[in-house]
Design a protein that fits this description.
Length: 188
């Protein structure tokens, strides 16, 4: 939207969307952005680049990189540019008919979506493989009592620290050079 009130999609932070950004906590740019849009937005935002959220539509409707199984490419691009991501349509792995049967293989499809070509089903591993530092009020992976019987992650939402070391080279067909190009993962 222009500061005059006229609506025109910008898909980035620029001189037209800047006045709104300057008086808000963050800005969400729609998912029709171009390759150069995240870097341009970062330059305009100066020290607030992580307050710029570039959209990714998992269903792939006009999103950079095509969405669907290629969403990790957009995430990687945004990470390299130093801006944040706003993800739309995350239910695609459950609702679509692409790939393996989505409802029966939801966890596997989620892993494939977010890890890209190096996907693996980490949640299928036993809880003993996790190093739990602070259990909070507990966490676990268990079979759902719902109609699909899918595996679910149960948490008390209290502070819990856990880590897991996975040798991706020995457990998959990844080359070490691919791992060096993967984006950093931050959890807050």
């Amino acid at each position: 939207m222009y500061s005059s009130g006229k609506l025109k999609w910008q898909s980035c932070l620029n001189q037209e969307t800047g006045p709104y950004f300057d008086v808000s906590d963050a800005i969400f740019c729609d998912y029709h952005w171009k390759t150069e849009s995240p870097e341009q937005s970062k330059q305009y935002a100066k020290t607030r680049q992580t307050d710029v959220y570039m959209g990714i539509d998992v269903f792939g409707r006009g999103t950079w990189g095509g969405g669907k199984w290629e969403c990790y490419n957009a995430m990687k691009h945004l990470t390299n540019c130093g801006v944040s991501a706003a993800i739309f349509g995350m239910a695609w792995t459950y609702e679509s008919n692409e790939g393996k049967s989505c409802k029966e293989n939801f966890i596997e499809n989620e892993s494939r979506l977010w890890y890209g070509k190096c996907w693996m089903n980490i949640l299928s591993q036993k809880n003993e493989s996790w190093n739990v530092v602070n259990k909070g009020q507990g966490w676990q992976v268990e079979e759902s009592s719902g109609p699909d019987g899918a595996m679910v992650f149960i948490s008390s939402h209290d502070w819990c620290s856990k880590s897991q070391v996975i040798n991706l080279i020995s457990q998959s067909k990844l080359e070490e050079s691919y791992l060096d190009t993967s984006p950093k993962i931050s959890v807050s």
